[in-house]
Amino acid sequence: MRTRKFAVALALCATMLSSRLAGSQATPSPKAMPSPSAGHHDRPPQEVFRVKPLSGNVYALYGRGGNVGFFIGPDAVLVIDSEFKDIAPGIVAEIKKVSDKPIKFLLNTHHHGDHVGGNEVFKQFAMIVAHDNVRKRMLSSPADILRDYPARLESAKKAGNEQMAKFLADQIEWAKKVRVEEIAAPIMTFDSGLRIHMGDETIQVWHLPPAHTDGDSVVYFEKAKVLHMGDDFFNRVIPFIDIQGGGSVGGYLMALDIVTARIASEVAIIPGHGEISDLSGLKSFRQYIVDLMDAAQKAKSAGKSKEDFVKEVELPAYKSFEGYPDRFRGNASAAYDEAR
Ligand SMILES: [Zn+2]
Question: Fewer C-beta within 10 Å: the chain N or C terminus?
Answer without folding.
Answer: N
